[in-house]
Structure formats: C-alpha cells, structure tokens
Design goal:
This protein has two domains: 136 residues, P-loop containing nucleotide triphosphate hydrolases (Rossmann fold, 3-Layer(aba) Sandwich); 35 residues, no CATH class. The chain is 28% helix and 26% strand. The radius of gyration is 17 Å and the shape is elongated.
Length: 192
C-alpha cells in the first residue's frame, strides 16, 4: 500500500518550500497532484500556499469538521498523489482518513507541518501522524545559538509568551524557532 509521509519541522524550516517543490516535481513527472491545506491557515488567502522564498500555488482547503474523503471524492479518484501543507491543523479523524486513502486507494499522501505548538505540545494532527505515518522525516532548523530549534516560541514586545490559545496565526512577527534551552531561558533575541 502507498506511503503516508509526515515531514515536520519548526517554523522557518522550509516546510512550505519543500512542499511546493515536491508538488512541482510530481507535476513535472506528469502526475496529477491533489494539493490541500486546512482552511484555518488563511494568512495568504483561503487557497494560496506561499513560501517565504517566493514560490506559491493554489490549494483546495478543508475545514476542521470536513470529511476529506467526501469533500474531495472526485479529486481523489482523479489524482495520483495527495500533498498537504500546514497539516498540523487537521483533526485526528482527518489524519485517519488520509491513512485510509493511502491504504484503500493506494495513493501516496505527503504531509508537511509543525510538530508542536508554542507551548511545546503536539498538535492533534501531528500526533496522529507520528502514530500512523509510514515515513517520518524532520526538516531541520537551527536556533540562533546553534542547537536544534524544536520549539515554535510565540513572542511579543515583552518577550516569550508561555500561555494563551493554541492557534494564533502569525509569522516571523509573532513566532521564532528556538531550542528548548533558549525557550526556557526566554532568549528570544540572541544570547544574554
Ligand atoms: Zn538556542
């Protein structure tokens, strides 16, 4: 049966760029790509996936309570491969649907997303992917201190924010990938 792949990393680990490059590569090989993303992430408009390095593509979106199998029933039959960005915002049930698609339809599903939220807890979708994916790969990212940046720290003008709601959309203005030590010590802007 086909693979369910989870490529995870911190913010700034080129997840979206890798995702868009994979889409391009598949298309170049003549494959029909079904490109999806959860609708919760609307920084760039409901259907545009955009990387910091400037490449972008349109994606179909799904809501938290949508059934991916039902919503994209026709597209799933027509496509050769499914690629999903920002997959962490998917529900446990939706990840189980993706697993069923890779098994039942025998079509590979490539997902890209964050491992944990700003409080270092696994996202619901990412947790289920760690449990069900056949291939799991880290997209590495370094903290400014040189350690591996595994935390997506949320910050404001006062420093690192350790509490609040799980989803608060933002980019470099609100989040910074840090190692655990810098996160705990509140080192958001270089060593001190
Ligand atoms: Zn660090």
């Amino acid at each position: 049966m086909a693979d369910l792949v989870f490529k995870y990393g911190s913010m700034g680990s080129s997840k979206t760029a890798s995702c868009l490059m994979l889409r391009f590569e598949c298309m170049e090989n003549g494959l029909n790509v079904l490109f999806l993303k959860p609708s919760i992430d609307n920084r760039d408009g409901v259907s545009t996936v955009k990387s910091r390095i400037g490449i972008e593509a349109d994606a179909f979106t799904y809501d938290a309570d949508d059934s991916i199998s039902r919503k994209f029933a026709n597209e799933l039959i027509d496509c050769d491969v499914i690629i999903i960005d920002e997959v962490q915002f998917s529900s446990k049930k939706q990840i189980e649907e993706l697993k069923a698609i890779s098994e039942g339809l025998d079509k590979p599903v490539y997902t890209f997303g964050l491992r944990t939220d700003f409080k270092t807890n696994l996202w619901e979708g990412s947790k289920r992917l760690f449990e069900l994916a056949t291939v799991i790969e880290e997209l590495p990212k370094k903290c400014f201190c040189g350690n591996s940046a595994i935390v997506n720290a949320r910050y404001d003008e006062k420093g690192i924010v350790y509490d609040g709601k799980q989803v608060e959309l933002g980019s470099n203005d609100k989040y910074k990938a840090l190692c655990y030590t810098c996160y705990k010590r509140g080192r958001v802007n270089g060593k001190r």
